[in-house]
Amino acid sequence: MSNKIRLGILGGGGDSLIGILHRVASSMYDKYQIVGGVFNPNWEDNIGFAKQIGLPTNRIYKDFDTLIEEELKLPESERIQVVSILTPNFLHFPMANKLLENGFHVICEKPMTTTYEEAKILNQTLKKAQTVFAVTYTYTGYPMVRQMREMILNGELGTIQKVDAQYYQGWINPIIHDKEKRSSTWRLNPEKSGISCCIGDIGTHAFDMLEFVSGVKIESVLADLNYLYSDNKMDIDGTVLLRCSKNVKGVICSSQIATGEENSFIVKVYGDKAGLKWEQENPNYLYLMEDGKPLRVLKPGHSYNSELSLDGTKLPPGHPEGIFDSMGNIYKGVAKAINKEPYNHGEFPTIIDGVRGMNFIEKAVESHQKGNVWVDIENVD
Question: One Pfam family, short name please (predicted)?
Fold first, then answer.
């Protein structure tokens, strides 16, 4: 029997981008073996996809409940250990909650749930289950994002004064301006996506990233969201002002109607000694800015980087690493936790990140609906 962690996958079949991202990431460090799952609710598509990617079909199940029922019949040494949830948002909570109740480890796409209340329930379930839970805020796995975090933790920026994140995409333009399309896509359906599209999909990445790298906690938000059309119930653009711990202030700008933008995620943190800037579309460059000194560019793989950054670097300097590597680093961290090996707490986002992310989404929408007022983010442990 292989000593690899036995992985099951829910969703992510067909031409799903997120599906191939997770499958490649899980294989990257030879820590996991995909042994079963439910890739599609349609049986023919489900079993056909399993054959397409070369999986034995004896553990491809007709639905989620059958997966749990049949896997629990197997000896513990054979059953699936961890399940990745790659389904539409509204299925995240019921699936994750039942998996935890039955002793499985969980890797969950974001947003973790569709409501903050569900997120808190999930956190309580995890406390009882005592298993491993990760939320795939993928960008935290980039080596130079991890370097950014470590430099800030080590005080190289001095006292943090300002945090800033911009996440711009333009993909929803062909959908939002067509009444029939915007009424039929699940992304703009509150019953399937929750109360937010843009903030829930990409704004939450910015929220988690700023807390991850800066070490400050976002305590209050003031949001101004854009729905563009009166019949559209989901935000597709928004600006959120931030009040953080340690008297730090900041801003998150996110948009899915930024025409021509692909995946422009830019993170900036400024201290009284220096500033750092990272851009997702050029992830190998971390810019160090200091008053009166030339701009310095830090790159992955060099000995001047932190242990956490180097642990997530697989190639020699000068060889690009990308989003597959970033997700792979998260899977690697989860594997260490499942195997009870020592790991850095920056190696994968936990359920607390997911809970805070859901709180942020709801508070941003609440702030907008109340006339753009400040509302507090709750502290969760």
Answer: GFO_IDH_MocA
Do 74 and 67 meet the contact criterion of CB atoms below 8 Å apart?
no
| Per-residue DSSP letter, 377 | P
Q: Answer yes or no: CATH 2.60.120.510 is held by domain 5-138.
A: no
Start-end of CATH 3.30.360.10 domains in the chain: 143-316+351-369
Can you tell me whether residue 221 is helix, strand or coil? strand
CB proximity list for 325: less than 8 A, separation 6 or greater: 28, 141, 142, 143, 312, 314
DSSP letter at 60 equals B
Contacts of 34 (CB under 8 A, 6+ apart): 7, 8, 9, 23, 26, 55
Distance (Å) of CA 218 to CA 152, 163, 164, 241:
16, 10, 12, 10
Instruction: Sort strands 296-298 and 375-376 into parallel, antiparallel or unpaired.
Output: unpaired
Q: Where in the chain is the domain with CATH 3.40.50.720?
A: 5-138
- Beta-carbon contacts of 310 under 8 Å, excluding residues fewer than 6 positions away, are 143, 301, 303
Whether 296 contacts 157, CB under 8 Å = no
Whole-angstrom Cα distance, residue 227 to residue 336? 42
Written as tens digits, the pLDDT of the chain (381 aa) is 478 999 999 999 998 889 999 999 999 999 999 999 999 999 999 999 999 999 999 999 999 999 999 999 999 999 999 999 999 999 999 999 999 999 999 999 999 999 999 999 999 999 999 999 999 999 999 999 999 999 999 999 999 999 999 999 999 999 999 999 999 998 899 998 889 999 999 999 999 999 999 999 999 999 999 999 999 999 999 999 999 999 999 999 999 999 999 999 999 999 999 999 999 999 999 999 999 999 999 999 999 999 999 998 877 787 666 888 899 999 999 999 999 999 999 999 999 999 999 999 999 999 999 999 999 999 988
> Please, which residues bridge with residue 243 across strands?
220, 249
Does 143-316+351-369 carry CATH code 3.40.50.150?
no
Can you tell me which residue has the tokens 């999930």?
122
* CA separation for the pair 87, 9 (Å, rounded): 9
- Distance from C-alpha of 258 to C-alpha of 159, rounded to nearest angstrom: 33
Say if residues 367 and 374 touch (Cβ distance below 8 Å).
yes
